[in-house]
Design brief:
The structure holds two protein chains of two kinds. By secondary structure, chain A is an alpha+beta fold. In chain A, 51% of the residues lie in helices and 17% in strands. The chains are: A alpha+beta, B alpha+beta. The interface between A and B is large, with 48 and 43 residues.
Chain lengths: 360, 394
């Protein structure tokens, strides 16, 4: 076993960290994240230039990465910087497009010209694809979609909208170029949209796309988990600094044992989260993929919000303010639990899966 | 990044598995699986079998009779032993005193003590804690006063695990009251059959007697039984407590317990359905499984760090805290599956009368017994202090 990052991944991680620290402070982030178009075109093209979107797909598919470990490295830096660019939808979208042979579109995404979003969630569907109600029916050469998609992250401004809808063949995947969106920003920054579809024209990528969507959702879960690890890491650094410097009752907060122990527990849970992401990334593409992705999303979903709550509490009133970064990291960590299935969804998913060989 | 064991490590794991499957006596494994107390003879039998195989003193250098294993191999061995219901090796001679003697002992002490640990002639126990010095060892009071060629020892030790089976004890004793409290402590070896020594069992929460009090009244101990320099005991104790931590997370025990839980949940029924189909229990078990899988990787990460020569640092404390939390959570889950069926008094439990498997019938006793995990070996609060010191750099 070997837990060191490959040279290539280390360089990618370093160049992203340097880029964010030089170009992306909290004021700039918040200015972009909380109002239309909910992201910054210049940051997007910088990230494309640094190879981020290229890291999402393999060389064979027109990129120069593609492994889950590379995706995890990228998203950990996204999380540390609290970057609100809509990368998750683009990650999942470009993988699906590559899988269905749409190399022209993949190329446009890798170069930063196109952005994709994946519309799975409906008001009654969080992560269980079987419950999808949106309908797709064939009409002449094309398809028409009806139903409603909700909380589609990254949809505002995306030119490639991938919509999961029920066809006669199963759950299919459809490409929509032009839809009317009800866009809004989220509490943790970044844009989402609801899409009301009433005979919306679409192109069929696959009439039965269930395994492909399942797959890409697992990769999205790993990416979100890695983002959470980056955010937790930064949040804990800020908390340690604060507790060390802040004085109350004539002494540093860090001299109170109760507070010290709570910080230790945060660090311990962070290391557990880091481990489960390493595990899930290594299992991606193996028979253990779904199990370990579910474990990761469950553990991250339990620990992310807890670390967010502890960080706010240990900062006291300052942790409640808009001005201080802690509050924004905390919001992102909590909302990550709600994306692509929360801790409860994944505990039940995991419980329903066959157990691994190592327990036998 | 590669999470898998190397081909050599996998071959080693297979060798250990084959050995355990062939050699571990069924009667002993059955007792371990059922959570029954082992007789002294059971522990001695397994100890002798491992000694014959050359696998007993996993942490000792080869020149003193160790097998020459890497940290990863030691981890694999511990994990496999737990998965196959091998008895826990009594650690006091093998992983505590042995390495101390090798590091701090005189040539004569090495020649006398080490072979007797290996062949089982000596059963050592540990005399660190006292009624007023548990995790705070610096405040210990048992006095050893030098008088010519002997130390005269007076005082009381407590929580002496399996002391009822032991013939010798290694103690921290106060040899000076000068300077700070840590500075006046020495590391002394005492024969338990010396006049003035009395061992009294302490009955614990689950009804069992696995720990003891040891009283010393004017006990004469040859000065040659001092390990290291006089007043160097604190350094030696710290070495002993931190030097071997490959099994501290207890991954093998938790893995085995989780498998036991699933086997039981598949057969137990509550409110007309299998417990394994009860979403609340299924979710609790699933979350514990995720915790355990994460800890398995955390443990491997720390082993890899140790192998690459970097200091494990805060790692062993984190493994202890999280590992014991998970083991305790598993015991809670196990107990709650059975409810009142889990609660017969473990002592004198007659297998023939049980409505549930023996390990299940002992679930409540095991749950209470496992509360010790976060208390002994440096309480989890002490471990947090150790980590906090590093985090805050003070």
């Amino acid at each position: 076993m070997d837990f060191t990052l490959s040279e290539e991944r280390r360089l990618l991680s370093e160049s992203l960290r340097r880029y964010f620290s030089d170009n992306y402070d909290l004021a700039r982030r918040n200015a972009h994240a909380n109002g239309a178009p909910y992201h910054a075109a210049s940051v997007w093209s910088d990230l494309a230039g640094l190879g981020v979107m290229g890291g999402f797909v393999s060389e064979a598919d027109g990129g120069f990465g593609g492994g889950a470990a590379v995706v995890a490295v990228i998203f950990e830096e996204i999380g540390r910087a609290l970057c609100a660019e809509p990368l998750l939808g683009t990650l999942m979208g470009v993988r699906l497009l590559a899988g269905f042979g749409r190399h022209d579109l993949v190329e446009a995404i890798v170069s930063g010209e196109s952005r994709a979003a994946l519309a799975v969630v409906e008001p009654q569907v969080a992560c269980n694809l079987d419950a999808i109600e949106a309908q797709a029916r064939q009409a002449g050469d094309g398809w028409l979609l009806s139903g409603r998609k909700s909380a589609v992250y990254g949809a505002p401004g995306a030119d490639l909208l991938l919509v999961a809808a029920r066809s006669e063949a199963g759950i299919g995947l459809f490409l929509v170029r032009d839809a009317e969106l009800a866009a809004t920003s989220m509490i943790d920054g970044g844009g989402v949209a609801d899409i009301v579809m009433e005979g919306l024209p679409a192109e069929c990528l696959a009439a039965d796309a269930l395994p492909a969507i399942d797959d890409v959702l697992d990769l999205g879960r790993i990416a979100l988990g890695a983002e959470a690890v980056g955010a937790m890491d930064r949040l804990i650094e800020m908390t340690i600094d604060y507790v060390r410097q802040r004085r109350q009752f004539g002494r540093a907060l860090s001299s109170f044992q109760e507070l010290r122990h709570r910080v230790v527990d945060m660090v311990m849970e962070l290391e557990q989260c880091r481990s489960i992401i390493i595990r899930a990334a290594a299992s991606f593409g193996t028979p253990d993929q779904a199990r370990h992705a579910a474990m990761a999303k469950n553990l991250i979903g339990r620990m992310g919000p807890r670390i967010a709550e502890e960080a706010i509490q240990l900062h006291g009133g300052i942790g409640m303010t808009w001005e201080y970064p802690v509050s924004h990291y905390a919001k992102r960590l909590v909302m990550i639990d709600h994306q692509l299935g929360d801790r409860h969804d994944h505990a039940l998913r995991l419980a329903a899966m066959p157990r691994g060989a190592e327990a036998a | 990044m590669d999470l898998e064991y190397t081909a050599e490590e996998r071959a080693f794991r297979d060798e250990v598995r084959n050995f355990l499957r062939k050699e571990l006596p069924d009667d002993i494994a059955a007792k371990v699986a059922a959570g029954k107390e082992l007789a002294k003879a059971d522990m001695e039998r397994w100890h002798a079998m491992l000694n014959a195989r050359g696998w007993l003193a996993a942490t000792w250098p080869q020149e003193h009779g160790g097998p020459g294993w890497s940290a990863v191999q030691r981890h694999i061995f511990s994990e496999e032993c737990a998965l196959h219901d091998a008895p826990r090796l009594v650690p006091f001679g093998l992983t505590m005193l042995g390495p101390v003697v090798i590091r701090f002992g005189t040539q004569a002490q090495k020649q006398e003590i080490l072979p007797r640990i290996l062949d089982g002639r000596d059963w050592w126990c540990q005399g660190f804690s006292e009624p007023d010095a548990g995790s705070d060892l610096a405040s210990l009071r048992t006095r050893a006063v030098r008088d010519g060629d002997v130390y005269v020892v007076n005082g009381q030790k407590t929580w002496t695990t399996l002391g009822q089976h032991a013939n010798r004890i290694f103690c921290l004793v106060r040899t000076s009251t000068e300077g700070n409290p840590q500075a006046g402590i020495s590391f002394l070896l005492i024969d338990l059959d010396t006049p003035g020594v009395e061992v009294r069992p302490i009955r614990l929460i689950d009804g069992g007697c696995e720990v003891n009090e040891v009283f010393f009244t004017d006990v004469g101990v040859p000065a040659s039984n001092l390990v290291g320099e006089e007043n160097q005991g604190w350094t030696i104790a710290k070495y002993l407590l931190t030097h071997e931590r490959t099994n501290i997370a207890g991954i093998g025990f938790s893995t085995k317990d989780l498998a036991r839980y699933h086997a039981l949940a598949a057969t137990m029924r509550r409110d007309g359905r299998r417990l394994s189909e009860n979403p609340l229990y299924a979710a609790r078990a699933a979350e514990l499984e995720a915790d355990l899988e994460a800890l398995r990787i955390t443990n491997l990460r720390l082993l890899a760090t140790a192998r690459d020569g970097a200091a494990a640092g805060i790692g062993s404390s984190l493994l202890k805290i999280k590992g014991t939390q998970i083991r305790q959570d598993l015991q809670s889950l196990f107990r709650s599956v059975l409810g009142p069926l889990a609660a017969p008094d473990a002592n004198g439990l007659a297998d023939a009368e049980l409505a549930v498997p023996a390990d299940a019938a002992r679930a409540a006793a095991a749950y209470f017994n496992h509360r010790k995990l976060s208390i002994f070996g440096g309480s989890n609060e002490i471990q947090r202090n150790i980590v906090a010191k590093q985090l805050f750099g003070d």
